[in-house]
Specification:
Blueprint (H helix, E strand, L loop, with lengths): L11 E10 L4 E9 L5 E9 L5 H19 L3 E6 L2 H8 L9 E6 L6 H10 L6 E4 L4 H9 L3
Parallel strand pairs: 1-4, 4-5
Antiparallel strand pairs: 1-2, 2-3, 3-6
Length: 148
């Protein structure tokens, strides 16, 4: 795996994860965006009525993460996730034409706990949920109590 170049400019941290509910034919996407000081910039929970395998769900979560980051206007990002196979796909992409600077790294599941919990919670939602800069108390407690 190519090691992404890390710039000396502070990057926002974007964590993503997906969850699969095979029994009910649903997937959940969880994304959390933190500033360089690990403060909340945004979070996204997306429930989808799809029957996907875990790899496809993780790839979908990464896509939602990148789209959400664009909507937030973030231009320097450090993408982090526990799906190494999905992150390896980024190695083959040409990022020169992108409107933002990007780096990525694989993290252990324990460091992706907030995005994982958001993906699991998304499975029980009827429609998507997001926040920008301020989140519910439970979300802020998740961030503070995590290893991010």
């Amino acid at each position: 795996m190519r090691t992404p170049q890390v710039s000396n400019i502070s990057s926002s941290l974007l964590y993503f994860d997906g969850a699969v509910d095979k029994l009910n034919g649903r997937v959940g996407v969880g994304v959390v965006v933190l500033n360089p000081e690990h403060g909340l910039l945004g979070a996204l929970l997306v429930p989808l009525p799809l029957s996907l395998n875990p790899k496809a769900t993780e790839a979908l979560a990464l896509w939602y993460e990148i789209e959400y980051e664009k909507k937030l206007g973030i231009t320097n990002v450090d993408i982090r996730g526990d799906a190494l196979n999905v992150l390896n796909v980024l190695n083959g992409l040409k990022t020169r034409g992108w409107d933002f600077r990007v780096s990525w790294r694989h993290v252990k599941k324990c460091f992706n706990a907030v995005a994982h919990e958001l993906a699991r919670r998304a499975l029980s939602l009827v429609e998507g949920w997001f926040c920008k800069e301020q989140g519910h108390k439970w979300l802020l407690q998740l961030i503070v109590g995590s290893n991010v």
